[in-house]
Every structure is written in structure tokens, then in C-alpha cells.
Amino acid sequence: MDHNKIKELISPYHDGELNEEERKQVEEHLRECPECRKEFEEMGKFEEVMSKMQLKEPPKEAWKMYWSSVYNRLERRIGWILFSIGTIILLFFGGYKLVEGLIQAPDIPLLFKIAILSVLGGVVVLLVSLVREQLFVRKRERYKEVEK
Asked: What is the pLDDT of residue 130?
């Protein structure tokens, strides 16, 4: 088997994930190749150190703060969504009222009326999106004190 392929199989060998044939090929190669044997031994040491490591359990206050921030972010996102939808509806309605006479004119083709409403809707959505993005960027701007 290829030398590089054996190197890829060293970790699965340690984890016991190889079939019988692959396991034998790795063992045979390790007997003959000092470079792979060294990597195998280092992997064994690494596995040993990792098995002894234990994660610290965060204090209860940290969990309370975490869940509180999750709920706050969720509430804010829902608030922004509702605010955005309301703003879009109000701006679209205002824009519609501005071009209402044009829309209701019987001599203008339906396709042109749909195009006008589509452009109006697109402008409203882009405007709300741009304002919202600028509010978020301004709040999170890391370099606002840096002069150009």
C-alpha cells in the first residue's frame, strides 16, 4: 500500500476503525517504516493526553447569561423582522398612493402597471434593507475612531 495512504490510516488505526486487511497492512508497514512508526507513536501519545483531558463545567451563572442572551437576540431579531415588514408595508402603501392615479388609469397597459408596482416594491425593500444594514454596521464598526 502507498506510504501516504498508510499515513492517512494511522489515526483510524488508533481509533479501531479499520477492517482486518487494512489493519494488517498498517502493522506491516509500521514494522518496516521508521517515519510512520514515529508518527504512530506520536499519535499514541496524543491520544493518551487527549483521553486524560477533561473539560471544565461552566458555572451556572454563565449558563444563565448565555440563555438570557439567546432569548434577547431572538427577541431582537423578531422585533427587527416585524419592524421591517411594517415599514415595507407602510412605504409601499405610501408609494402606491403617490402613483395611484397612474395605476388606475384605464389607458395604461396592465403589464406597465405591474412593472411600476414591482419597481416601487423593490425600492421599498432595498431602502429598508439599506437603512437596517447601516444601523447594524454603525453599531459594530470597529474602526470608527480611525481617521482616514
From this structure: 86
